[in-house]
From TrEMBL:
UniProt xrefs under Pfam families: DUF6223
Keyword Transmembrane annotated: yes
InterPro entries in the record: DUF6223
Signal peptide: 1-22
Protein name per the record: Integral membrane protein
Highest taxon above the source species: Bacteria
Keywords: Membrane, Signal, Transmembrane, Transmembrane helix
Transmembrane segments: 46-69, 81-102, 114-135
Length: 149
């Protein structure tokens, strides 16, 4: 296994472990005892923005990797973008899920529930794009180099 793959895997593991350890603290911080204004940045809204940014980064990476794998952009198979989408997408889903699970009120209460659902959807799209590109690159590598004549 190349060193860069090992470092990327270790970074992803540290990120997911940090999210797992931050779950109880995030649930405590997300609890809002009083009503807040429409433009107030609460902890729930901030976490939903983080989840949305992670999901959006994964979706962009997955979309670019998909365009690269079809030959529209560049001349590669897009595996790096697919892996980036498969790391950032589930991270966005986890953060969005935590926000939705910790929310005690509906839209407009400051818990970030709308942003949590949006980051869930965007993270799922990023994961699907990354999986599609990775499956496409595996198919093309096995079909082009597998036979002997």
């Amino acid at each position: 296994m190349p060193v860069r793959h090992l470092l990327a895997t270790a970074a992803a593991a540290v990120l997911l472990a940090g999210l797992a350890l931050a779950t109880p603290a995030a649930a405590h911080v997300l609890a809002q005892p009083e009503p807040v204004g429409s433009y107030t940045l609460t902890a729930g809204r901030a976490w939903s923005m983080v989840g949305g940014a992670l999901g959006l980064a994964g979706a962009v990476a997955g979309g670019l990797a998909l365009a690269r794998s079809t030959g529209r952009i560049g001349n590669g198979d897009g595996r790096r973008g697919a892996i980036a989408a498969l790391v950032a997408g589930p991270a966005g889903v986890v953060v969005g899920g935590l926000v939705v699970a910790a929310a005690e009120g509906g839209p407009g209460t400051g818990y970030g529930i709308v942003g949590g659902y949006i980051s869930l959807v965007i993270g799922l799209v990023a994961t699907a794009l990354g999986g599609l590109v990775l499956a496409r690159s595996r198919r093309s590598s096995t079909s082009s180099g597998g036979g002997t004549a």
